[in-house]
Structures are given as C-alpha cells and as structure tokens.
Design brief:
By secondary structure, this protein is mainly alpha-helical. It has helices at about 5-15, 25-30, 35-50, 55-75, 80-90, 100-105. The termini are far apart.
Length: about 110
C-alpha cells in the first residue's frame, strides 16, 4: 500500500516530468535548486516558530509545508523518497546509543 508521502512524491515527480502551467511545483522547478532550498529554509523557520508559539494547527500546517518542499528538493536532486523511508525504517528498528546521542547533542 502506497503511503500518502509516497503518493505526494509521485505527484511532485510527475510535475517535474510533465510541467503544467500555473503549477506552483513547476514554478519551483523552473526557478531551480536555490529557490527550492530557500523555501525549505523558510518553511523550517516557520515550523520552528509555530512550534515555539504552541499553536498546534499552525505547527501541523507548517510541518506539512516543510515536508512538501523537502519532497520537491528530493525530486530535484534525484533522490527517491523510498530511500528516506528506508532510512527511517532502519532507524526505527535500531536501539539507540545514548552515549552517542549525547555526543551528537554536544556537537550541534
């Protein structure tokens, strides 16, 4: 069964292969990687602000915008969303290393 994320990725991929006039997704592809990454950054910042302001409905909206723009970025870079899902699946089945996690926290 195809997930919503995979289905949306396919829509974005189709827009890249078959541009449609008036499509925001096509606009992003036309403008190129710099514009796409700018939008990823903007949506990331808006997600952070919505979460900080503790407004769940805004947070959900901003996270959705961020995920969409990340999918556009993945398509632009030729990275299948299945690679990301496989990595998340791999991590979900891994028992964390608390010592390593603390080290990563110090580095970031």
């Amino acid at each position: 069964m195809e997930s919503t994320l995979e289905a949306l990725y396919q829509v974005v991929l189709d827009r890249k292969k078959n541009p449609q006039e008036g499509s925001y997704t096509c606009y992003l592809f036309d403008k190129g990687l710099d514009k796409i990454l700018k939008k990823v950054g903007e949506e990331c910042a808006e997600t952070i602000i919505a979460a900080k302001n503790d407004v769940p409905v805004e947070t959900v909206g901003e996270v959705s915008d961020l995920i969409y723009h990340l999918l556009v970025m993945l398509v632009e870079k030729g990275i299948p969303v299945s690679d990301v899902l496989a990595e998340l699946d791999r991590r979900a089945h891994k028992i964390g290393n608390l010592k390593r996690m603390k080290q990563v926290d110090k580095e970031s």
